Amino acid sequence: MKVSIDLTENKGQKEGIPIYMKNIITNCKKNEYCGGAFAGIRHSVKKLEKRLTDFYGLSKTKVKKYYIPDRFFPRLKYFKLNFPYKKIFDKDTDLYLCFNNFMPRNKLKCKKVVVIHDLTPLYSNITSNFKKKLFVRAYKYTIENADRIITVSEFSKSDIIKTFPEAKGKVEVVYNGVDYSRFQVRVDEKRLAEIKAKYELPAKYVLFVGQARENKNLLRLLRAYSALPQSIKEEYGLVYANTNPEINTLLKQLSEKNVRLLNGIDAEDLVGVYQGASLFTLVSTNEGFGIPIIEAMAAEVPVVCSNISSLPEVAGEAAITVDPYSEEDITKAIYKVLSDEKLQKELVKKGLERIKVFNWKDSAEKFEKILDDVMGDRKWKK
Fold first, then answer.
1. What are phi and psi of 177, to 5 degrees?
2. Considering 20, 123, 307, 337, which has the largest number of Cβ atoms within 10 A of its Cβ?
3. Which CATH code for domain 2-177+360-378?
4. In sequence order, what E strands does 76-173 have?
5. How many other C-beta atoms are found inside a 10 Å radius of the C-beta of residue 119?
6. Are strands 148-151 and 60-65 parallel, antiparallel or unpaired?
7. Other CB atoms within 10 A of residue 133 CB
8. Is 17 within 8 Å of 38 (Cβ atoms)?
9. Residues linked to residue 336 through DSSP beta bridges, in sequence order
10. Are 299 and 271 in contact (CB under 8 A)?
11. Residues 6+ apart with CB under 8 A from 123
12. Distances from the Cα of 121 to the Cαs of 192, 214, 306, 364, in angstroms?
């Protein structure tokens, strides 16, 4: 069976969607997966094609030169859904697979499966009502026209069906996984020291990994850290993998000296940054899954996370959960873990058991069974 995939939104290859795509595709063995993408006017088609092919391991990647006016409609995927997607897919495609939440509005004659990771754009406090209405329309069109919808947690499944009742009967859950071999191999002390020096990390630190978006709740986390006893803050710093102007401004106002705001972490250094941490925090107000939680657990780092959205489902009993809207609750949880070595060891032990649930091979097998079920008797071309 030939499966065509839209890769246009995943040129960065550092966020949750590309991670999910890469690991599902890498572990799917039964079918032929071919990627297609539109390149912006400033992109080199050959370089982009090679990068996409190398990253996703696809048998074929098509890249078309096509101007996408991001400067006029930043981050608003809705405006990109009317482009001629047929041009980047093979004519004999059996099934169109989109990992990017939304399905193009072109009339594709093949079967269609879409991965909706979450409905986060609908819950934003900074997105205008106009844009939210466009997102609602895009989700609605996708749900009505997809033959099957895959999502990454039972929470997201419930949220999709609650918001769009027409999705009932179409949605199935395929969890994210974690690369055990990558995160559990211990980084030696010399290499760890090099990584800490490269990013100017504190000797001990509380860590956040992810994009500095509104739903990550990073302003509250920073204020919660600032409320810790001075002795704790002197011993343990706070490290954000990414920052934004609001966070930078707040840090200046708080005058905290042991906080490190990074502008990204290189892939080859990520495991070392995790393993060098004393505690990992993800106190988001909304998450479809929360991959960094299971990455931290695999790296043997204790976790504090939110008690809402998908995070309790992912963390199970292996993390301390908090009310993400309560800075006091976050402060108390961080203090509790950092002050109790026995609790830290218990959380690490529980985390190593918990991550056994999240296996990319098992997820890929379930994913392909869903594709086969969608195709039915049509799954093989004559």
1. -125, -175
2. 20
3. 3.40.50.2000
4. 95-98, 111-115, 148-151, 171-173
5. 20
6. unpaired
7. 12
8. no
9. none
10. yes
11. 215, 285, 286
12. 37, 10, 19, 27
72 class by beta-carbon count within 10 Å (0-12 exposed, 13-18 middle, 19+ buried): exposed
Distance CA 4, CA 89 (A): 6
Chain length of the chain? 382
Angle between helices 16-27 and 360-375 (to 10 degrees): 80
∠ Cα 54 59 64 (to 5°): 75
Cα gap 114→148, rounded to integer Å:
7
CB 238 within 8 A of CB 218: no
As a whole number of angstroms, the distance between CA 111 and CA 379 comes to 10
DSSP state of 302: -
Question: What angle do the packed helices 291-298 and 341-354 form, to 10 degrees?
Answer: 110
Residues 6+ apart with CB under 8 A from 381: 1, 2, 92, 94
Task: List the domain boundaries for the chain.
Answer: 2-177+360-378, 180-357
Question: Over the stretch 51-106, which tens digit does the pLDDT of each residue have?
Answer: 888 888 888 888 887 765 555 555 545 556 777 788 888 888 999 999 989 988 88
pTM of the model: 0.92
How wide is the angle at C-alpha 363 spanned by C-alphas 286 and 81, nearest 5°?
60
Neighbours of 350 (CB within 10 A): 18
Local structure of residue 267 (DSSP, 8 states): G
The 10s digit of each residue's pLDDT in 264-303 is 999 999 999 999 999 999 999 999 999 999 999 999 999 9
Other CB atoms within 10 Å distance of the CB of residue 327? 21
Smallest CA-to-CA distance from 16 within 163, 146, 209 is with 209
Which whole number is the average pLDDT over 351-380?
Answer: 90
Instruction: Give the C-alpha distances (Å, rounded to integers) separating 192 from 174, 274, 276, 317, 348.
Output: 34, 10, 7, 29, 20
Domains 2-177+360-378 and 180-357 share a fold: yes
Q: What are the residues whose beta carbons fall under 8 Å from the beta carbon of 161, sequence distance 6 or more?
A: 167, 168, 171
Separation CA 302–CA 304 (nearest Å): 7
180-357, CATH topology level: Rossmann fold (3.40.50)
Strand partners, 113: 97, 148
Cα separation, 56 vs 19, whole angstroms:
9
Task: State both tokens at 271.
Answer: 């495991």
